[in-house]
Amino acid sequence: MIGDFSAGNYRFIPSVFQYSAGAAADDGYEIERVRFDHLVPLAEGFAVVAKYIQEAGRPLTAFCACELRSPAAFSEEGFRAFNLHYVKTLSEWGIFDGTTNPVARSNVCPEFDPPSEPSFYAFSFTRPTTSKAPSFVIAGGAEAREGGGTYVERTVRYRDLSPEGLREKVRFTTTSQMENRMTAFGFGWKDTTGVQAYSVHDFHHALVDELVRRGALRSGLTWHFARPPVVDLEYEMDCRRVLRETVIYR
After folding, report:
1. Per-residue DSSP letters for the chain?
2. Spatial distance between the Cα atoms of 153 and 156, rounded to a whole number of angstroms
3. Are 63 and 49 in contact (CB under 8 A)?
4. Quick one: which of 138, 146, 208, 240 is 20 to 30 A from 62 by CA?
5. How far apart are alpha carbons 69 and 143 in whole angstroms?
6. For residue 224, what are the β-bridge partners?
7. How far, in Å, CA of 100 to CA of 56, rounded?
8. What gap in Å lies between CA 64 and CA 125, rounded to an integer?
9. Contacts (Cβ under 8 Å, ≥6 apart) of 137
10. Cβ count near 6 (within 10 Å)
11. How far, CA to CA in Å, does 219 sit from each of 102, 124, 199?
12. pLDDT digit string (tens) for 7-22?
C-alpha cells in the first residue's frame, strides 16, 4: 500500500510509527537532499532544518526524509524511547498524526568518532519543479523481517557473522528491503542515483553476487563504517533517486 501525504506533496510506504519505508515526490515536485558538513545535534538540527525549508518557501510538512547518527546501538526498549522523543517534533510540524508517520529515515551508529548524542547527518524535503524526472528516498533497512515479534525472532541469521551468514543478511536487505520498497513505488535499481551501506563487517565477498549483478551499484556504493541502530543487527542499506543535492556548512 502507498500512502498519500498531500500536505507535503509526496507519497510514502507505511511502516512503523517512527518512520515510513520510503517517500516519493508527487508530480510537479522533486526531493532535495541536504547534507551537513558535520553532524548537528538533534534539537539544533531540527531548528536548522525548519529554517532551511521555510527559506526555500516550503511548509515544514515538506520534510520527507532524514539521516541520523546515534552514539551507539540501542536496546529494543531504548530504541522505542528514542523514537517516542523523535516523533514529538514531527507532531508539532503537522506531519505525524500519532499513528502514521510519512517521513523516511535512516539512523545508524558510527563505530569511530560517534556523536555524543543523536544527530542529523542529512535531510530531504520536497519542492516544486518543472522537471518530469521522479525522485524518491528509500528508508534504511536492515536484516530484520518486518512484522510482529522481537528483533531476536525477526533477524535473519541472528548473531551469525560467518561469511555465509553475512551474505544472507546482505541478500535479504538488498531484496526484501530495498527492492521491495522501490517496487512499491514502481522503481528499481536502474533509477537510483545513490546507494549507501552501513556495517562494521567485511561484506566484500557478497558484493558481486548480491549487489553488482542485481544492478544495485550502477552509481557506486557509499560504505559507512557504522552499525544499524539496534543491538545485534549487522548490516543496513538505503538508496535514493535525488537530482538536487546540497552540502551546507555549519
Report:
1. --EEETTTTEEE---BTTBBSEEEEPTTEEEEEEEEEEEEEHHHHHHHHHHHHHHTT--GGGEEEEEEE-SSPBPHHHHHHHHHHHHHHHHHTT---SS----EEEEEEESSS--SS-EEEEEEEEEE-S-----EEEEEEESB-SSSS-HHHHBTTTT--SHHHHHHHHHHIIIIIIIHHHHHHT--GGG-SEEEEE-SS--GGGHIIIIITTTTTTT--EEE-EE-SBTT---EEEEEE-SEEEEE--
2. 9
3. yes
4. 146
5. 19
6. 198
7. 26
8. 5
9. 22, 23, 24, 31, 33, 64, 65, 104, 124, 238, 240, 242
10. 9
11. 26, 19, 19
12. 999 999 999 888 999 9
Residue type, 203: F
Name the grid cell of 80.
Answer: 522505542
Is residue 188 within 8 A of residue 163, CB to CB? The reply is: no
Mean pLDDT, all residues of the chain: 96
Whole-angstrom Cα distance, residue 171 to residue 53? 36
- C-alpha cell of 155? 533477524
Q: Residue 168 is placed in which grid cell?
A: 544472507
Burial of 112 (0-12, 13-18, 19+ CB in 10 A): exposed
The mean-pLDDT minimum among 72-86, 102-116, 185-199 falls in 72-86
Among candidate residues 196, 189, 85, 219, the one with its CA nearest the CA of residue 142 = 196
C-alpha cell belonging to residue 159: 548473531
**Residue 84 in this model has a pLDDT that exceeds 90:** no
pTM, rounded to two decimals: 0.96
Q: How far apart are CA 150 and CA 143, in angstroms?
A: 13
**In the prediction, which pLDDT does 145 show?**
93
C-alpha cell at 83: 523514537
